[in-house]
Design a protein that fits this description.
The protein is an alpha+beta fold. The protein has one domain. The chain contains one helix and three strands, in the order ββαβ. It has one helix spanning 44-53; strands at residues 19-23, 35-39, 57-62. The longest helix is centred in the C-terminal third of the chain and has 10 residues, at 44-53. It is globular. The two termini are 18 Å apart. It comes from Pilimelia columellifera subsp. columellifera.
Length: 68
């Protein structure tokens, strides 16, 4: 079985994911709920800044295969 690499969530990016950005929208989600965006090294900051500017970013952790 061929396993596809897990890639960055940035639009058009095909780089392997290295980071998990855990977030939630407090207007829509319960406080404990976490949604996940995956990021490569290049997009970690820009995706994090986007979420942080909206007060959505909760945590950034290294991505380990099998976490997604």
């Amino acid at each position: 079985m061929l396993v596809e690499p897990v890639i960055c969530s940035a639009k058009g990016c095909r780089a392997p994911a290295r980071w998990r950005l855990l977030w939630n929208n407090p207007k829509l989600h319960q406080p404990a709920r976490r949604k996940t965006w995956l990021a490569c090294d290049e997009h970690r900051t820009s995706l994090g800044d986007f979420l942080d500017a909206r007060a959505f970013l909760r945590e950034v952790t290294p991505f380990v295969a099998g976490d997604a």
